[in-house]
Design brief:
Layout: H1 2-9, H2 22-45, H3 55-60, H4 66-73, E1 90-94, E2 100-104, H5 108-117, H6 121-124, H7 132-137, H8 139-150, H9 155-164, E3 169-171, H10 175-179, H11 182-186, E4 190-194, E5 200-204, H12 228-234, H13 239-247
Antiparallel strand pairs: 1-2, 2-3, 4-5
Length: 252
């Protein structure tokens, strides 16, 4: 209970978990990489090998400098919201219409252009902010002035202004934004599939895109028990045996 009281007292410090099964996905991708490497090894040596991937190891492998920072400096990363710890400014900033612009103004020359754009020449010319280390020390101040600027503009106006001075930025998409984006549609990342009941469902497209052997949607997900008979026949059961299993409620 003490831990719960502490978390309730400081909600801003509660770690936020990823809202999708990212460990499963990353482990699968690392497994595929292992398969490809093992196939290359088999082509060269004629021998296969065991591929071993754990969920936590796949996620850990994508944590960039997390461990070296702790090893070298004793730094323990905590909840950082949408910012990149140790890089400034790089954050998501709320705009007038409630949407968010992700602005990466952390390059030295990019930072100068960003500050000039938002009318803060004093910060653009401040020698203590000329490099990343100086900006990290004053990141809260920098984020505040950028937030004040974006709060007065719609996300589209903010992005247009940032693009005009070559400051990397982009809108944080909701799924509604994705579903209506013509670029996603042109890249075939929005695939409309007709279900067996006649309704339509939009699914993500196939990645990666291969020029000679592109992926395709072959069939819809089966209903419960739809393929039971075929599977049981493949392992040698007769129609009478399958019927008996169904009659007893063992299979659908």
């Amino acid at each position: 209970m003490g831990g719960l009281r502490h978390l309730t007292a400081e909600p801003g410090r509660v770690p936020v978990r990823v809202g999708v099964s990212i460990g499963d996905t990353l482990a699968a991708l690392h497994g595929v990489i292992g398969i490809l490497l093992a196939l290359q090894h088999r082509h060269a040596s004629g021998r296969g090998q065991i591929i071993d991937v754990a969920l936590y190891e796949a996620v850990f492998n994508c944590m960039e400098s997390l461990l070296p920072e702790y090893s070298a400096f004793g730094a323990v990363r905590g909840a950082a919201g949408s910012a990149l710890p140790g890089i400034a400014p790089s954050n998501a900033y709320r705009c007038q219409d409630g949407a968010y612009a992700l602005i990466a103004g952390n390059g030295d020359s990019i930072f100068r252009r960003l500050m000039i754009l938002i009318g803060r020449e004093d910060l653009a010319n401040d020698p203590s902010l000329a490099d990343n280390a100086g900006r990290v020390a004053r990141v809260a101040e920098i984020d505040e002035v950028i937030s004040a600027w974006t709060a007065q503009r719609s996300v589209n106006d903010a992005l247009a202004a940032l693009d005009s001075v070559s400051v990397p930025a982009g809108r944080i998409y909701s799924v509604a934004d994705i579903a209506s984006d013509p670029h996603y549609r042109a890249r075939e990342m929005l695939r409309d599939v007709q279900l067996d009941d006649g309704s339509s469902l939009t699914l993500p497209g196939i990645v990666p895109k291969l020029s000679a052997t592109p992926g395709s949607h072959r069939r819809n997900a089966p209903t419960l028990g739809q393929d039971t008979g075929e599977v049981l026949r493949e392992i040698g059961l007769t129609e009478a045996q399958i019927a008996a299993l169904r009659e007893r409620g063992i299979v659908n």
